[in-house]
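Quick one from the shared queue. A colleague (R.T.) flagged Mucin-like spermatophore wall protein 2 as missing a structural entry in our internal table.

Convert sequence to C-alpha cells.
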Amino acid sequence: MQISGHSLFIQWRVRPLINGDGSCEPKKNDTRQCGNDQLSPGTKWLLAEHKKCISELEHLKDIIGDLHRWVDLIHEKGQSMFNAFNELKKHLEDIQHQILGLHRVNHDNEIIINRLKKELDDWKGKARRFQVELDEVKSKYTELERQHNKMKREYAACSSEHEQCSTQQSSRETQVSTLVQSNRQLKSQLISAEKYKDLVEAARKRVKNLELQVERHMKEIKKTQEDLNKCKIDVLNAPEHVEHPL
C-alpha cells in the first residue's frame, strides 16, 4: 500500500507470470486505488496523526522560514549596526585626537597665559616704581617752580632796586657836580676876596662844610655803588630759567 501526494491510497501487488514467451517479464505489478473505508482503524489513526505531523511540519517550515528571514534581517541590522559602530568608533577616535590636540593647545595657552601674567605683574611693578619716580619728579618740579618764581620776584626786586640806585646815583652825581661847581665858585670868590678876612674865614667855614658834605655824599655814593655791585652779582648768579621735566 502506498500513499500518494493527493491523499489517495494505492494498493498494489506483484504477481508471477506462469505462461508466456521469453520476452515476457517474470513478474507483473497490479495497482489500484482504494478509499478510506477500506483502511483499518489503526491505519486511519496513523494517517490522521501523519496529517497532523505534516501540518505541524508545514507550520514549522513557515516558522523556520520566518526565523530565517528574521535571522537575515537581524544579520543585516547587525551588519548595519556594526558598520555604524565602526563609524562611531572612527568618529570617537577623531574626537579623541581633537581633544588631545585641544588639550595640547590649552596647555600651550596656559603656559602663554602664565607667562603673560608674570610679564603683566612685572610691568605693574615697574609702573608702580615709575609712578613713585614721577611723583618725586613732580614734587621736585613743584619745588623748582616755586624757587624759580621766588627768584623771579627777587630778580624783579633787584631790578627795581637797581633802577632806584641808578636814579639815586644820577641824582648824587648831579649834586656832587653842583657842589664841585659851587666849590670852584667859592674858591674863586675866596681868591678875589683875600683882603676880607672875615669873609675869608666865613668862606673857609663854608668850604669846610661843603667839603664835609661832599665827603658824606661821596661815602653815600660809594655805599650806593657797593649796593649796586652786590645787586648786579645777585642778578648774575640767579638762574636764567628752570628746565621743566618732560
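The chain is about 80% helix and 5% strand.
Confidence is low (pLDDT under 50) at residues 1-7, 241-246.
Added to the table.
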